[in-house]
Protein backbone atom coordinates (compact mmCIF):
# COMPACT_ATOMS: atom_id res chain seq x y z
CA UNK A 1 0.00 0.00 0.00
CA UNK A 2 1.16 3.54 -0.70
CA UNK A 3 2.18 5.45 2.38
CA UNK A 4 -0.14 8.38 1.69
CA UNK A 5 -3.13 6.05 1.29
CA UNK A 6 -2.27 4.37 4.59
CA UNK A 7 -2.11 7.73 6.37
CA UNK A 8 -5.38 8.94 4.85
CA UNK A 9 -7.16 5.75 5.92
CA UNK A 10 -5.86 6.27 9.44
CA UNK A 11 -7.57 9.64 9.60
CA UNK A 12 -4.59 11.95 9.22
CA UNK A 13 -6.45 14.06 6.68
CA UNK A 14 -6.82 14.35 2.93
CA UNK A 15 -4.09 13.39 0.46
CA UNK A 16 -2.89 17.01 0.29
CA UNK A 17 -2.86 17.33 4.09
CA UNK A 18 -0.94 14.07 4.42
CA UNK A 19 1.69 15.33 1.94
CA UNK A 20 2.34 18.31 4.20
CA UNK A 21 2.81 16.00 7.21
CA UNK A 22 5.29 13.94 5.19
CA UNK A 23 7.21 17.01 4.03
CA UNK A 24 7.77 18.00 7.65
CA UNK A 25 9.47 14.67 8.34
CA UNK A 26 6.92 13.69 10.97
CA UNK A 27 6.37 10.18 9.56
CA UNK A 28 8.73 7.36 10.51
CA UNK A 29 8.70 4.03 8.65
CA UNK A 30 10.56 1.41 10.67
CA UNK A 31 12.41 4.18 12.51
CA UNK A 32 13.40 6.19 9.43
CA UNK A 33 11.84 9.49 8.38
CA UNK A 34 9.96 9.07 5.10
CA UNK A 35 8.87 12.09 3.05
CA UNK A 36 7.64 10.52 -0.18
CA UNK A 37 3.88 9.84 -0.39
CA UNK A 38 4.55 7.26 -3.14
CA UNK A 39 6.59 5.02 -0.85
CA UNK A 40 5.11 1.53 -0.67
CA UNK A 41 4.81 -0.09 2.73
CA UNK A 42 3.70 -3.40 4.16
CA UNK A 43 0.72 -2.12 6.12
CA UNK A 44 0.59 -5.18 8.38
CA UNK A 45 4.32 -5.64 9.02
CA UNK A 46 6.00 -2.21 8.87
CA UNK A 47 5.99 0.10 11.89
CA UNK A 48 4.50 3.49 11.04
CA UNK A 49 4.87 6.27 13.60
CA UNK A 50 3.52 9.81 13.18
CA UNK A 51 4.54 12.50 15.67
CA UNK A 52 5.45 9.78 18.16
CA UNK A 53 2.17 7.85 17.77
CA UNK A 54 2.23 4.35 16.33
CA UNK A 55 -0.50 3.69 13.75
CA UNK A 56 -2.26 0.35 13.35
CA UNK A 57 -3.74 -0.68 10.01
CA UNK A 58 -7.40 -1.68 9.90
CA UNK A 59 -8.38 -3.53 6.76
CA UNK A 60 -12.07 -3.51 7.64
CA UNK A 61 -14.17 -1.24 9.84
CA UNK A 62 -17.72 -1.64 11.16
CA UNK A 63 -20.06 1.13 12.29
CA UNK A 64 -23.47 0.76 13.93
CA UNK A 65 -25.75 3.66 12.97
CA UNK A 66 -29.13 4.70 14.31
CA UNK A 67 -30.45 5.96 10.98
CA UNK A 68 -32.91 8.86 11.14
CA UNK A 69 -35.66 9.56 8.64
CA UNK A 70 -34.76 11.73 5.65
CA UNK A 71 -31.52 9.93 4.73
CA UNK A 72 -31.19 7.29 2.05
CA UNK A 73 -29.15 4.10 2.40
CA UNK A 74 -26.61 4.84 -0.32
CA UNK A 75 -23.09 6.21 -0.69
CA UNK A 76 -24.10 9.12 -2.94
CA UNK A 77 -27.24 10.73 -4.33
CA UNK A 78 -27.93 13.91 -6.26
CA UNK A 79 -31.22 14.77 -4.53
CA UNK A 80 -31.09 13.43 -0.99
CA UNK A 81 -28.70 13.26 1.93
CA UNK A 82 -27.15 9.83 2.39
CA UNK A 83 -26.26 7.96 5.57
CA UNK A 84 -22.59 8.74 4.86
CA UNK A 85 -23.35 12.40 5.51
CA UNK A 86 -23.88 11.43 9.16
CA UNK A 87 -20.29 10.19 9.53
CA UNK A 88 -17.22 12.29 10.23
CA UNK A 89 -14.48 12.72 7.64
CA UNK A 90 -12.25 10.02 9.13
CA UNK A 91 -15.01 7.42 9.01
CA UNK A 92 -15.95 8.33 5.42
CA UNK A 93 -12.34 7.91 4.33
CA UNK A 94 -12.69 4.20 5.11
CA UNK A 95 -14.99 3.96 2.05
CA UNK A 96 -17.79 2.27 3.99
CA UNK A 97 -21.23 1.53 2.59
CA UNK A 98 -24.56 0.47 4.11
CA UNK A 99 -25.27 -3.26 4.42
CA UNK A 100 -28.71 -3.50 2.88
CA UNK A 101 -31.07 -0.57 2.86
CA UNK A 102 -33.68 1.22 4.90
CA UNK A 103 -36.27 3.38 3.13
CA UNK A 104 -35.82 7.15 3.40
CA UNK A 105 -38.69 7.35 5.91
CA UNK A 106 -37.59 4.30 7.93
CA UNK A 107 -35.29 4.70 10.92
CA UNK A 108 -33.25 2.41 13.13
CA UNK A 109 -30.35 -0.02 12.92
CA UNK A 110 -28.02 0.15 9.94
CA UNK A 111 -24.60 -1.48 9.63
CA UNK A 112 -21.90 0.33 7.66
CA UNK A 113 -18.69 -1.42 6.62
CA UNK A 114 -16.09 -1.71 3.87
CA UNK A 115 -16.14 -5.52 4.11
CA UNK A 116 -17.91 -6.58 0.92
CA UNK A 117 -17.80 -10.30 1.69
CA UNK A 118 -19.51 -9.81 5.04
CA UNK A 119 -22.17 -7.62 3.45
CA UNK A 120 -22.81 -10.26 0.80
CA UNK A 121 -23.06 -12.99 3.43
CA UNK A 122 -25.50 -11.01 5.58
CA UNK A 123 -27.71 -10.18 2.60
CA UNK A 124 -27.61 -13.62 0.97
CA UNK A 125 -31.05 -15.31 0.86
CA UNK A 126 -29.29 -18.58 1.71
CA UNK A 127 -28.22 -17.24 5.10
CA UNK A 128 -31.79 -16.39 6.22
CA UNK A 129 -30.60 -13.46 8.33
CA UNK A 130 -33.57 -12.35 10.42
CA UNK A 131 -34.47 -8.71 10.89
CA UNK A 132 -36.96 -7.36 13.43
CA UNK A 133 -38.96 -4.21 12.76
CA UNK A 134 -41.24 -2.25 15.07
CA UNK A 135 -44.15 -0.63 13.26
CA UNK A 136 -46.84 1.84 14.20
CA UNK A 137 -49.92 0.89 12.21
CA UNK A 138 -53.13 2.72 11.36
CA UNK A 139 -55.73 0.02 11.94
CA UNK A 140 -56.12 -2.82 14.41
CA UNK A 141 -53.98 -5.86 13.62
CA UNK A 142 -55.59 -9.16 14.68
CA UNK A 143 -55.04 -12.91 14.93
CA UNK A 144 -56.07 -13.37 11.32
CA UNK A 145 -53.21 -11.05 10.29
CA UNK A 146 -50.81 -13.03 12.49
CA UNK A 147 -51.82 -16.23 10.71
CA UNK A 148 -51.58 -14.59 7.29
CA UNK A 149 -48.01 -13.46 8.02
CA UNK A 150 -47.14 -16.98 9.21
CA UNK A 151 -48.45 -18.53 5.98
CA UNK A 152 -46.60 -16.10 3.72
CA UNK A 153 -48.41 -13.10 2.28
CA UNK A 154 -49.05 -13.02 -1.46
CA UNK A 155 -48.18 -9.71 -3.09
CA UNK A 156 -48.64 -8.80 -6.75
CA UNK A 157 -45.09 -9.62 -7.80
CA UNK A 158 -44.02 -12.28 -5.30
CA UNK A 159 -45.09 -14.38 -2.33
CA UNK A 160 -43.37 -13.46 0.94
CA UNK A 161 -41.68 -16.11 3.00
CA UNK A 162 -43.44 -16.93 6.28
CA UNK A 163 -42.87 -14.14 8.81
CA UNK A 164 -43.72 -13.51 12.43
CA UNK A 165 -46.17 -10.78 13.42
CA UNK A 166 -46.28 -9.95 17.12
CA UNK A 167 -48.98 -7.59 18.34
CA UNK A 168 -47.38 -5.48 21.09
CA UNK A 169 -50.15 -3.00 21.79
CA UNK A 170 -53.64 -2.11 20.50
CA UNK A 171 -55.38 1.22 20.93
CA UNK A 172 -58.99 0.55 20.08
CA UNK A 173 -60.02 4.15 20.64
CA UNK A 174 -57.51 5.50 18.11
CA UNK A 175 -57.68 2.30 16.03
CA UNK A 176 -53.91 1.94 15.92
CA UNK A 177 -51.50 -0.92 16.57
CA UNK A 178 -47.91 -1.30 17.68
CA UNK A 179 -46.42 -4.48 16.22
CA UNK A 180 -43.08 -6.23 15.77
CA UNK A 181 -42.39 -8.06 12.53
CA UNK A 182 -39.64 -10.64 12.10
CA UNK A 183 -38.64 -11.65 8.58
CA UNK A 184 -35.62 -12.98 6.72
CA UNK A 185 -36.22 -11.10 3.46
CA UNK A 186 -35.71 -7.47 2.62
CA UNK A 187 -37.46 -6.64 -0.62
CA UNK A 188 -38.48 -3.11 -1.57
CA UNK A 189 -41.08 -1.68 0.87
CA UNK A 190 -41.78 -5.25 1.98
CA UNK A 191 -42.96 -4.60 5.54
CA UNK A 192 -45.24 -1.77 4.42
CA UNK A 193 -46.65 -3.88 1.60
CA UNK A 194 -47.27 -6.86 3.88
CA UNK A 195 -49.21 -4.70 6.33
CA UNK A 196 -51.10 -3.07 3.45
CA UNK A 197 -52.10 -6.55 2.22
CA UNK A 198 -53.87 -6.94 5.57
CA UNK A 199 -55.84 -3.76 4.97
CA UNK A 200 -53.81 -1.51 7.31
CA UNK A 201 -51.11 1.13 6.87
CA UNK A 202 -47.65 1.51 8.41
CA UNK A 203 -47.25 5.06 9.73
CA UNK A 204 -43.82 4.63 11.33
CA UNK A 205 -41.19 1.93 10.85
CA UNK A 206 -38.05 1.23 12.86
CA UNK A 207 -35.53 -1.60 12.46
CA UNK A 208 -34.49 -3.08 15.79
CA UNK A 209 -32.19 -5.94 14.78
CA UNK A 210 -30.26 -7.41 11.86
CA UNK A 211 -28.93 -10.88 12.49
CA UNK A 212 -26.99 -10.82 15.77
CA UNK A 213 -26.81 -7.00 15.88
CA UNK A 214 -29.27 -4.98 17.96
CA UNK A 215 -30.08 -1.29 17.90
CA UNK A 216 -28.18 0.48 20.69
CA UNK A 217 -30.68 2.36 22.88
CA UNK A 218 -27.84 4.70 23.82
CA UNK A 219 -27.50 5.97 20.26
CA UNK A 220 -29.65 8.97 19.43
CA UNK A 221 -31.03 9.29 15.91
CA UNK A 222 -28.15 10.08 13.58
CA UNK A 223 -25.48 8.84 15.99
CA UNK A 224 -23.10 5.98 15.26
CA UNK A 225 -20.29 4.03 16.88
CA UNK A 226 -17.88 1.23 16.14
CA UNK A 227 -18.99 -2.32 16.86
CA UNK A 228 -17.95 -3.70 20.24
CA UNK A 229 -15.72 -6.77 20.60
CA UNK A 230 -18.81 -8.80 21.50
CA UNK A 231 -20.64 -7.62 18.40
CA UNK A 232 -17.62 -8.40 16.24
CA UNK A 233 -17.50 -11.90 17.70
CA UNK A 234 -21.17 -12.40 16.86
CA UNK A 235 -20.37 -11.79 13.18
CA UNK A 236 -17.91 -14.70 13.09
CA UNK A 237 -20.85 -16.99 12.25
CA UNK A 238 -20.75 -15.62 8.69
CA UNK A 239 -17.34 -17.25 8.21
CA UNK A 240 -15.60 -14.36 6.46
CA UNK A 241 -12.47 -12.40 7.32
CA UNK A 242 -13.29 -9.65 9.78
Care to describe what's here?
By secondary structure, this protein is of the alpha+beta class. It has three domains: 1-53, Roll (Structural Genomics Hypothetical 15.5 Kd Protein In mrcA-pckA Intergenic Region, Chain A); 60-123 and 211-236, Alpha-Beta Plaits (2-Layer Sandwich), CATH 3.30.70; 129-208, Alpha-Beta Plaits (2-Layer Sandwich). Helices cover 21% and strands 29% of the residues. The strands form three sheets. Strands 5, 8, 9, 10, 11, 12, 13, 14 and 15 form a nine-stranded mixed beta sheet that branches. Strands 2-1-3-4 form a four-stranded antiparallel beta sheet, with no helix packed on it. β8 and β9 (106-113) form a beta hairpin. The two termini are 19 Å apart. The mean pLDDT is 94.
CATH architecture of the largest domain: 2-Layer Sandwich
- Total domain units: 3
CATH topology of the largest domain: Alpha-Beta Plaits
Distance between the termini: 19 Å
Morphology: elongated
Q: How is the quaternary structure best described? A: single chain
Fourth-tier CATH superfamily name of the largest domain: Pseudouridine synthase I, catalytic domain, N-terminal subdomain
- Can you give the mean pLDDT? 94
Structural class: alpha+beta
- Spans of at least 5 consecutive residues whose pLDDT stays below 50 are none
InterPro entries: PsdUridine_s_RsuA/RluB/E/F_cat, PsdUridine_synth_cat_dom_sf, PsdUridine_synth_RsuA/RluA, PsdUridine_synth_RsuA/RluB/E/F, PsdUridine_synth_RsuA/RluB_CS, RsuA_PseudoU_synthase, S4_RNA-bd, S4_RNA-bd_sf
Organism: Streptococcus gordonii (strain Challis / ATCC 35105 / BCRC 15272 / CH1 / DL1 / V288)
GO molecular function: RNA binding; rRNA pseudouridine synthase activity
EC number: 5.4.99.-
